[in-house]
Design goal:
It is a single chain. The protein is mainly beta. The chain contains two helices and 19 strands. It has one domain. Strands 11, 12, 13, 14, 15, 16, 17, 18 and 19 form a nine-stranded antiparallel beta sheet that branches. An eight-stranded antiparallel beta sheet has the order 6-5-4-1-10-9-8-7, with no helix packed on it. This is Transferrin-binding protein B C-lobe/N-lobe beta barrel domain-containing protein. It comes from Croceicoccus ponticola.
Length: 350
């Protein structure tokens, strides 16, 4: 049996041993985890404990009841406005003037309304064509003041002849217009193409002109049309010869080297040209920029040619007008062979 004094002494010894063990553990913890202890002290200090000289400045809050200033929303960057395509130097809102030459005869069409053939029996010239360039890929035709078809972007075909914009619609018909100025720029100031709405018609047009002031000029030419030789229809497509203009005498001499390509309503542009005939005409130039109707002939063919200068001074880098020229023609020989087409030209030196 243990006495009271012995028990008390035993209890005090136990308490002393516990305190010593606690200090040893604390010292052991501080020596093993010094960074944890430092982090704990920093946390306590930042929360308001300890010496204020080591505290972190509190975040400034807005006065009670005030509304924070919102961050302004940046304005969206406007999309750049697309520059409309120029067609013979015309921009949307302007009209092109020119001529149209049509092949007469029964035609065949496919299910989409595209002409696939014609039995050519005659020709017809319209000398009062206007093409209203209403907007990008939107054109309205007016022949001799009687109106015509309207073609809009939804009718534009995804593929076609290089350089042409091609439109097709069951009601309005089919329309092709050359819009890229030619790889060498020879028809930058005029355009040409085809309107197959009622039959194969070929046109050439440009802006109402201001006349050139130079003494002479040479024009390169591009031709499109149809030929029926020995009962075979071919496409008159390509460049050949040119126009020489002498303003001093007010005359112009035009020479056409005509050649046909197979597949006239298909992929004719990739076909080889077969030469047909070279023909010439001399024309008088009037003050309004039109040429007098003249006889076109050569190699047993004879017919007529109609034309005018086009393009305004502002459209030409030299500041001179009449840098474009447009014509239509019809030809026939004694064997009944015939040709009809349109010509677009551009001055080489203006």
């Amino acid at each position: 049996m243990i006495g009271k004094s012995s028990a008390s002494h035993h209890w005090q010894s136990a308490r002393t041993r516990l305190r010593l063990r606690g200090k040893e553990k604390a010292m052991s913890y501080r020596s093993r985890y010094p960074f944890a202890m430092a982090a704990a002290l920093l946390t306590l200090t930042s929360c308001g404990g300890g010496d204020s000289s080591g505290s972190i400045d509190p975040v400034a809050l807005p006065p009670s009841g005030s509304t924070p200033t919102p961050t302004p929303t940046p304005s969206p960057t406007p999309s750049p406005t697309a520059t409309p395509t120029k067609v013979a130097q015309a921009v949307p809102g302007q009209a092109l003037v020119g001529y149209e030459a049509c092949a007469k005869g029964p035609v065949t069409r496919d299910a989409q309304g595209h002409i696939t053939g014609i039995a050519l029996t005659g020709t017809k010239i319209d000398n009062g064509l206007k093409i209203h360039y209403l907007a990008e890929d939107k054109y309205q035709l007016d022949t001799n003041g009687f109106g015509g078809s309207t073609f809009v972007p939804s009718m534009k075909q995804p593929v076609g002849i290089a350089g042409y914009d091609h439109f097709l619609d069951p009601v309005q018909g089919e329309f092709e217009i050359f819009s890229d100025g030619g790889s060498d720029g020879t028809i930058l100031f005029a355009t040409f193409g085809a309107d197959f709405s009622s039959g194969p018609c070929f046109f050439a047009a440009g802006l109402q002109p201001t006349l050139p002031t130079i003494r002479t000029a040479e024009y390169g030419l591009w031709i499109d049309g149809l030929a029926q030789i020995g009962g075979v229809t071919s496409r008159l497509y390509g460049g050949g010869k040119g126009l020489s203009l002498d303003l001093a005498s007010g005359t112009g001499t035009i020479t056409l080297a005509l050649g046909g390509r197979a597949d006239p309503f298909g992929d004719f542009a990739s076909q080889t040209i077969t030469p047909i005939q070279t023909v010439t005409a001399t024309m008088s130039l009037h003050a309004d920029g039109t040429f007098s109707t003249a006889t076109l002939s050569g190699g047993g063919y004879t017919g007529s040619i109609y034309g005018r200068l086009v393009s305004q001074a502002s459209g030409n880098v030299s500041g001179d007008g009449g840098a474009g020229a447009v014509f239509v023609f019809e030809l026939q020989n004694g064997a009944g062979d015939m040709m009809v087409g349109a010509i677009a030209g551009g001055a080489i030196l203006i």
